[in-house]
Amino acid sequence: MNDSISLYIDDELNLDEKIDFVKRVHHEEPFYSVAVDLLEQEKLLCADVVEAVPKISLKEKSGIFNLRFLRPYFRVAEFGVVAVLLLLFIAGRIPVNRPETSVESVSKRFVVYMPEAQNVQIAGSFTNWNSVPMKMVGPSGYWEIELDVARGEHKYVFIVGGDKKIADPTILLRERDDFGSENSVLVVEA
Amino acid sequence: MENFQDFYKKQKNRLFSYLMRMTGDYYLSMDIMQESFLRCLEKYRDKTLNSSLLYTIARNVFIDFTRREKRKTALEQDTADQDADIENEYRVKQEYRRVINAMKRLDTDERELLALVLTEELKYTEIASIVGINEGNVKIRVHRARLKLREFLSEGD
Question: What is the structure's pLDDT at A67?
Answer without folding.
Answer: 46
